[in-house]
């Protein structure tokens, strides 16, 4: 998989374009979800798949944080996750 041009990725996010099917399959593989889960047709698995014990411990404590602090974590975590997921998908195409 070649690198995704940031403009293309931005168009995906804004709903102006859609990735090719093989890219969607790779995204689902990387996220460890089914295509139905990725498309929102079925609910995602309820149990988190966190293998890093330290991260799992922190995850379990997040719910006790004040709402404002939880909300502040969302864009930070989301940006790391999205960047890594896209990089993995694109590196598999190579």
From TrEMBL:
Coiled coil: none annotated. Residues 1-38 form the HTH cro/C1-type domain. One of its GO terms (molecular function) is DNA binding. This is Helix-turn-helix transcriptional regulator. Signal peptide: none annotated. Pfam families: HTH_3. CDD domains: HTH_XRE.
């Amino acid at each position: 998989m070649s690198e995704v041009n940031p403009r293309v990725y931005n168009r995906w996010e804004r709903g102006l374009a859609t990735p090719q099917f093989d890219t969607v399959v790779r995204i689902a593989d990387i996220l460890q979800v089914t295509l139905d889960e990725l498309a929102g047709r079925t609910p995602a698995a309820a149990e988190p798949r966190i293998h890093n014990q330290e991260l799992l411990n922190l995850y379990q404590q997040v719910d006790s944080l004040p709402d404002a602090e939880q909300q502040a974590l969302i864009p930070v975590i989301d940006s790391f996750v999205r960047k890594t997921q896209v990089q993995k998908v694109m590196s598999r195409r190579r």
